[in-house]
Design goal:
Elements: E1 5-7, E2 14-16, E3 20-21, H1 28-31, H2 34-47, E4 51-53, H3 62-72, E5 79-84, H4 94-109, E6 116-119, E7 123-124, E8 132-133, H5 134-138
Parallel strand pairs: 3-4, 4-5, 5-6, 7-8
Antiparallel strand pairs: 1-2
């Protein structure tokens, strides 16, 4: 049986209907043992799951590190997505914050690329605390840059 896929938005990328989440809800890549993580990836590969989603926020980097370790000893090469959480108190160099976060994520994941980088902050008309203003996302030098 082949895992059904869907196209991710306008990217053209096929994404399996089931995706592995690296967050704390299941906690496998935050609190699981190496053997559990390795076994889960073998099962996912056999089932045709072709995407793993993680974030630096998940276990303060533990999820990305565990995935990087597990993928390095596996023949499984799914597409990867991660996220960036911006410090909204320092909006002067948002593009720099994104690049720094991405570089750290790539180090933890042990790879030179991710297929999708997502903004973990909520976006609003104005920034306040955790929320980032849409203008700060879209402006020159903003998060989108």
């Amino acid at each position: 049986m082949t895992m059904p896929t869907r196209t991710l938005g306008r990217t053209g990328l096929p994404v399996s209907n089931l995706v592995i989440g690296g967050g704390a809800v299941g906690g496998l890549f935050v609190r699981g043992s190496q053997s559990e993580q390795d076994r889960a990836l073998r099962i996912a590969a056999a089932a045709g799951i072709n995407w793993i989603d993680t974030a630096p926020l998940y276990g303060n980097g533990a999820s990305e590190s565990a995935l990087g370790r597990a993928l390095a000893v596996s023949d499984y090469s799914p597409r990867l997505s991660t996220k960036v959480m911006l410090d909204t108190a320092g909006t002067a160099d948002l593009a720099g914050q994104v690049m720094h976060s991405l570089e750290r994520s790539l180090e933890r994941l042990g790879t030179g690329r991710v297929d999708l980088l997502q903004l973990h902050n909520p976006i609003g008309r104005t920034g306040d605390g955790h929320r980032i203003a849409v203008a700060d996302v879209l402006r020159d030098g903003g998060a989108l840059d």
